[in-house]
Amino acid sequence: QVQLQESGPGLVKPSETLSLTCTVSGGSITTKYYYWGWIRQPPGKGLEWIGYIADSGSTYYSPSLKSRTSISRDTSNNQFSLQLSSVTPEDTAVYYCAAGLVPFGWGQGTQVTVSS
Length: 116
Hints:
Blueprint: E1 3-7, E2 11-12, E3 18-25, E4 35-41, E5 48-54, E6 59-61, E7 69-74, E8 79-84, E9 93-99, E10 105-106, E11 110-114
Parallel strand pairs: 2-11
Antiparallel strand pairs: 1-3, 3-8, 4-5, 4-9, 5-6, 7-8, 9-10, 9-11
């Protein structure tokens, strides 16, 4: 059973870059046809896809966040990462990493607050 765990700072200042890493166990991020993504939930709002990285390393980003988003991977450590630049308080949310386009595995989520 695949397990995912997010890690990264819980507090980011406005205009800085939010960086999170997801460590995967119980499955390889290079497994064919698998996708690995980032999803967030702002307070009082629904879930929002940020983007994903495929087994091939190709990426897809939400159009609304594309200009500020980068997803990369470290296959040697079975990790994938999110960078979201120029953050504002509106980027405050619980951030999840997930396995699959229709997720079959979720991290527990990590709260990220954007504040000075």
